[in-house]
Amino acid sequence: MRPLWKLRSGQFVGWRSDDDQLYGADGAHLGYFVDEVAYTNDGRAIGELYGNQRLGRREDVIYPTGARQAPRGAKAVAAMGPMTGIPVAGWTDPEL
Fold this sequence. Notes:
single chain, mainly beta
């Protein structure tokens, strides 16, 4: 499991599992990844990876709709603290 933070604010988002699932800071299953793009279980694009551990949303991109997926069970995880945000032009924090 790889920890993820919001790009601009540095707020801890949760975890990307080895099988490309997205879990929140509390361990709840939030969605999944297709390559570098994260989707909710109902197929709404959340954002994409910026680097290895940041999740952001490009302002000039219309993300495609993903497939619907049944939620998975929660995982036992430990929340992590915030990191320093990175103010990248043209990117916003994902809405989670």
